[in-house]
Design goal:
single chain; alpha+beta; Macrophage Migration Inhibitory Factor; two-stranded antiparallel ribbon; 4 strands
């Protein structure tokens, strides 16, 4: 059974469902493995635990969405 693992910051329940459906469908189409064989795991981490390019993700988000 193939396993798809996604590491992410907080995701809404609705978006998790969309992600699971989309990833499963796409992986099945590409690999010709039935959708029912796939398991999708979503690991959520607090935003303050992420850093990109040496900068905390919280700071990057603030720059992208100034209030």
């Amino acid at each position: 059974m193939p396993i798809i693992t996604v590491d992410a910051a907080k995701i809404t329940k609705e978006n998790k469902a969309k992600l699971i459906t989309s990833l499963t469908k796409t992986a099945s189409e590409i690999t010709s493995i039935p959708e029912s064989s796939f398991t999708v795991l979503i690991k959520e981490f607090p935003v303050e635990n992420w850093g990109i390019g040496g900068e905390p993700l919280e700071e990057i988000i603030k720059k992208m969405n100034p209030k």
